[in-house]
Amino acid sequence: MSIDTQPAPQPTTRDRGPVAVHRRLPKFAPPGLFLAGVALGAALSALTGFSIATAIVYGVVLGTLAVYIASRSVEGRRKATDRLVTSLVTTAFAIAMVPLVSLIYTVLDKGLPRFDSAFFTNSMFRVVGEGGGAYHAILGTVIITLLTTLISVPIGLMTAIYLVEYGTGRLKQAITFFVDVMTGIPSIVAGLFAFALFTLLFGNDVRLGVMGAVALSVLMIPVVVRSCEEVLKLVPNELREASYALGVSKWRTVVKVVLPTAIAGLGTGITLSVARVIGETAPLLVTVGLITGTNLNPFDGRMATLPVFAFYQLTQPGTATQAFIDRAWTAALVLIILVMALNVVARLISRFFAPKTSR
Amino acid sequence: MTTTSAPTAPPRPKRRPGDRLFAGAARGSGIFILLVLAGVAAFLISEALPALTASSEEIPGGEGLSSYIGPLVLGTLLGAVLALLVATPLAVGIALYITYYAPRRIASGMGYLIDLLAAIPSVVYGFWGLAVLAPKLVPFHEWAADALGFIPFFAGPASTSGRTMFTVGLVLAVMILPIISAISREVFSQAPALHREAALALGATRWEMIRIAVLPYGKSGVIAGAMLGLGRALGETMAVAIVLSGGAGATLNLISNSNPSTIASNIALKFPEATGIGVNTLIASGLVLFLITLVVNMLARWVVNRRADFSGAN
């Protein structure tokens, strides 16, 4: 047996029909053409007074056009459209990254100058110019968020348990639907609700930390319900049936079998919902207000919170304007750090408390 | 031979007190949530009532409730619709990129980056819009007033600070981008693999596969996501309150210094100093906002749920 090692005959494209004509751009061509377009765009921008923004815009448009035209003339209309969409979709993603990068850079740039120990140890009590800090506001945010969590988690978790373990028929449908609708309540409306409720109970012009907690709970409960419900649904039914077969009552099955199995997901979901409300400003603005001193009692008068503190430092600066604006940006930076930290904690919880699937 | 005796009635499960208590607590929490939602409407109405019945001279502005709230409603819709028009195509593109274009290994990381946009507090978006985006957009405002001035939306004169409805629309677009793209991503990734493979097997390019197999399947999901984003943009408060220099009457002009305010930002800015009937007026405007977002969200959920039934049948 001899193996034919002759090279395959070169296809003679001219003799074949149009189907066999399968021309493709070489692999390096699209990125190369794109870069050429970008360079041309930068040159064009330089002609009209250089700026990075116009250079990028011209460059991306010209680069995309170059790839499209080349592909259209070599590969045909269908392939060209495909390449066009590929670059459009990639550009969409790149555009979305611009505000994220710009925002984080700006907050770091403007927030770091006052990111010092005084910011975390001083309040704004009797501070009219430089110095001062957000000690009172950070503590206020922590207290109100804890209170919110204390209200929201039991109600949200029990509702999720009802929806997954007990719920049937109309009531279940109604709760599912309205929890979804509730996730869309504007935060300011939640604040007005708490204000109206406490005004009816305690008379006019009442401002309490707990009002803010009630307002934030309206926003947090539906998030807790949704995330806990998703997690509880993932608990395998075999575990419940095994427990029932041993004669364990239903509520002990839920408490001793279902919840421990789902604990990682529940922790993650609850942490993320805390992250969702910790930066809310509008409801606190209308219910808690702001003070310059430290008030740690949520049942007695106004409190300071970090988002409201940041808002007023920026929008109502005193005579030493720059000091107020610096404090505002540092407060924004601390707020972002808090939210990011909660997000990281949520990821760690889901990693370390995940149920052991095998030994 | 074994005789099977007639089956006796199955033993009724014993109801223990703990069971009853726990089930009651769970059911009670669910009902409590419904009550809270009803309570939001009820308390808002009860506090808005004085403004609804007050004579028109008592309302701030002195021309009655509807001419106070009307421009605010216009401003709210203007900003939110602009945000929606900008964000929806971008979000669909991002969702397609993450589900079908990005390299598999880093796709989930990219999804996480987009989700980061949702984690940033709205007050920080306001800071960014005021300090970075608004000044950067001033040249565009000038250009738009020159070149597009014949369109009522760009009639000018161009704002020199950039704190306009146009800038607000862009900030809101960034804020609702992660919402729309998260839902679109989910439905796109659920497009049936058999349909996609069939399209590719027939020689479709990647874009043709997406057009004939993914987009028809994900269409209602995109619509629902867009409406949820719209609901979010309608109710967004702090970013608008910080960026927009509002307060002028009703105008469609997006790029001038006189913009209508939005309901939510107007409440946030006026509420701390409001007294008497002013408070009731603001709560009445909040009630209008609540009703608008309620309708939008219920429509969105209805679309989502209808689709869930549909895909469940397949």
Characterize the structure shown:
The complex is a heterodimer of chains A (359) and B (314). Chain A is mainly α and 359 residues long. Chain A has 13 helices and no strands. Chain A has helices at residues 29-47, 52-75, 77-111, 117-121, 135-166, 169-182, 187-202, 209-233, 237-245, 250-278, 282-287, 306-315, 321-352. With 314 residues, chain B is mainly α. Chain B has a single domain, classed as MetI-like (MetI-like fold, Orthogonal Bundle). Helices cover 74% and strands 0% of the residues of chain B. Chain B contains 10 helices and no strands. Chain B has helices at 17-53, 65-101, 104-119, 122-147, 165-189, 193-201, 206-235, 238-243, 263-270, 277-313. At the A-B interface, helix 3, helix 5, helix 6, helix 7 and helix 8 of A face helix 1, helix 2, helix 3, helix 4 and helix 5 of B.
Helices and strands in order:
The complex is a heterodimer of chains A (359) and B (314).
Chain A lengths: L28 H19 L4 H24 L1 H35 L5 H5 L13 H32 L2 H14 L4 H16 L6 H25 L3 H9 L4 H29 L3 H6 L18 H10 L5 H32 L7
Helix pairs in contact in A: 1-2, 2-3, 3-13, 5-8, 5-10, 5-12, 7-8, 8-10, 9-10, 10-13, 12-13
Chain B lengths: L16 H37 L11 H37 L2 H16 L2 H26 L17 H25 L3 H9 L4 H30 L2 H6 L19 H8 L6 H37 L1
Helix pairs in contact in B: 1-10, 2-5, 2-7, 2-10, 3-5, 4-5, 5-7, 6-7, 7-10, 9-10
Short description:
By secondary structure, chain A is mainly α. Chain A has helices at 29-47, 52-75, 77-111, 117-121, 135-166, 169-182, 187-202, 209-233, 237-245, 250-278, 282-287, 306-315, 321-352.
Could you say what the CATH topology of chain B is called? MetI-like fold
**Can you tell me the CATH architecture of chain B?**
Orthogonal Bundle
CATH superfamily placement of the largest domain in chain A: MetI-like
Please report the first level of CATH classification, the CATH class of the largest domain in chain A. Answer: Mainly Alpha
The number of strands of chain B is 0
- Assign a percent range to the helix content of chain B: over 70%
The CATH topology label of the largest domain in chain A is MetI-like fold
Provide the succession of SSEs of chain B: HHHHHHHHHH
How confident is the prediction overall: mean pLDDT of chain B?
85
CATH architecture of the largest domain in chain A: Orthogonal Bundle
By DSSP (H or I, 4+ residues per run), the number of helices of chain A equals 13
Rg of Cα set of chain A:
30 Å
Bin the strand percentage of chain B: under 5%
